[in-house]
Design goal:
19 helices, alpha+beta, 2 domains, single chain, globular, Rossmann fold, Glutamine Phosphoribosylpyrophosphate, subunit 1, domain 1
């Protein structure tokens, strides 16, 4: 047994009940899951991890954390807020000594935005210290949590990531790697894990490859991270993607690949290509920026309309709008200017001011849109409230016609694999037809790219309904895994209704 390891926490001077104040100006957007990063046996481990998390900031802006290991002790810094606000000072990095580190930038999908849920999480196990962070969502996490608590487990957080700590701790396997694999065999959902012990770093990707994880190399040392852009920022070399269902173990001997589960067809999340991944990332060998331009081009082919100017909804609609404009032969212009300096904590004291929130984030470029027939291009419509305000802003700026084109099919179903998405009743496309959405948004025409068109943009001949190439349930309702927690909750509610009657 490895001697017990000491962990020293240096956490922000915030009460655990403190949350990020102020209304979220992006509440009508899909939110970007989380980002993970880990580097093994490099003298600048913590600094590299902080830089990597900077590159992954788009995947989560609520909190960030780093755990390092110096050969004797683990050290932890976990903070609410942005990476740059918390990990840019030298004294913070100096409190994270050691040659191995893992980090996480978070947008919560399970568990609230409180300090004890900020990752990486750490626990002292029989085999020694274990730190872990996670991108995605466990669809049986609640079920496992209830079972573990009933068996006497003591939870410190409400994040589903803590489940993996308890499962590893309770495994009766001898080697740590076997314990970790034993734990993976009990979970469901979409996930990418990066963990660290006193001797190794370990990574795992779910059997369908829903959530991304890649391997990099810098100065002969291995790195695990969510996207290739985190490798670019530190000058690391992209090695390959972690395969779906693969476990990778990195130690002083190098990198070992283990495939402990039956092989399954890969079905990565299609929204990584449409929205989540940074445009300069390489996903599954494909440049995301180029794919988004191609999505826009096919959107123009499918639903072109006479217009004077193509206007992107910044920033997510920009690549698709460029592709649309090029395919349609219509000028591309910045008809909406985004203010990048409006933070989530901006104080909006009255309802009348809150109603103007979209104008603080975006403003019309009247010189571009006045008197023009414009095509607005965006990546998706979720609730539709922000889209409606942007359309009205174009009308107020003098647009003669406003046509809306969306670079994804209508979102009709909720997600359970790590995307923070509203319940189904709050999804505009779940309860309105396209003509009804057109009237609600106040546009002259509305069109979405078809599901087959989206697949063609990604290099497929179309969607294979019998064996879909991507995870696309938000459009189709075709969930790729059993959602145990949802089934359990439905059964529980039926039982309560039966008892009440």
């Amino acid at each position: 047994m490895t001697p017990s390891l000491e962990i020293r926490h240096h956490e922000a001077d915030l009460d655990e009940t403190d949350r990020m104040d102020g209304p979220d100006l992006e509440s009508d957007r899909l939110h970007e899951e989380c980002g993970v990063f880990g580097v093994f046996s490099h003298p600048d481990a913590a600094a590299l991890t902080a830089l990597g998390l900077h590159a992954l900031q788009h995947r989560g802006q609520e909190a960030a954390g780093i755990v390092s290991f110096d050969g004797q002790r683990f050290h932890s810094e976990r903070r609410l807020g942005l990476v740059g606000d918390n990990f840019s000072k030298r004294e913070v990095i100096e409190r994270l000594p050691g040659q191995s580190a893992i980090g996480h930038t978070r947008y919560s999908t399970t568990g609230g935005t409180i300090l004890r849920n900020v990752q990486p999480l750490f626990a002292e196990l029989e085999t020694g210290g274990f730190a872990v962070c996670h991108n995605g969502n466990l669809t049986n996490g609640l079920t496992l949590r209830r079972r573990l608590i009933a068996d006497g487990a003591i939870y410190q957080a409400t994040s589903d990531t803590e489940v993996i700590l308890h499962l590893v701790a309770r495994s009766r396997r001898n080697r740590f790697t076997d314990r970790f694999i034993d734990a993976l065999g009990q979970i469901e959902g979409g996930y990418a894990f990066v963990g660290m012990t006193n001797k190794k770093m370990i990574g795992a990707r779910d059997p369908l490859g829903i959530r991304p994880l890649v391997i990099g190399e810098l100065d002969g040392k291995f790195i695990l991270t969510s996207e290739s852009v985190a490798l670019d920022i530190i000058g690391a070399r992209f090695v390959r993607e972690v395969e779906n269902g693969e476990v990778v173990v990195i130690d002083d001997k190098g990198l070992e690949s283990i495939k402990p589960f039956p092989s399954r067809r890969k079905r990565p999340c299609i929204f990584e290509y449409v929205y989540f991944a940074r445009p300069d990332s390489i996903v599954d060998g494909k440049n995301v920026y180029g794919l988004r331009k191609q999505i826009g081009a096919i959107l123009a082919q499918e639903s072109g309309v006479p217009a004077d100017v193509i206007v992107p909804v910044p920033d997510s609609g920009v690549p698709a709008a460029i592709g649309y404009a090029q395919a349609a032969g219509i000028p591309y212009e910045l008809g909406i200017i985004r203010n990048h300096y409006v933070g989530r904590t901006f104080i909006q004291p009255t309802q009348s001011v809150r109603d103007q929130g979209v104008r603080m984030k975006h403003s019309a470029n009247r010189a571009v849109v006045e008197g023009k027939r414009i095509v607005l291009v965006d990546d998706s419509i979720v609730r539709g409230t922000t889209s409606r305000k942007i359309v009205q802003m174009m009308r107020d700026a003098g647009a003669r016609e406003v046509h809306f084109r969306i670079a994804s099919p209508p979102i009709k179903f909720p997600d359970y694999y790590g995307i923070d998405m509203p319940d189904q009743e709050k999804l505009l496309a779940a309860h309105m037809s396209i003509p009804q959405m057109k009237d609600y948004l106040g546009v002259d025409s509305l069109a979405f790219i078809s599901i087959d068109g989206l697949y063609r943009a990604l290099g497929e001949p179309g969607r294979n309904a019998a064996q879909p190439q991507f995870t696309d349930h938000y459009f189709t309702g075709d969930y790729p895994t059993t959602i145990t927690d949802l089934v359990g909750e439905a059964a529980k509610q039926l039982s309560l209704l039966a008892e009440a009657s």
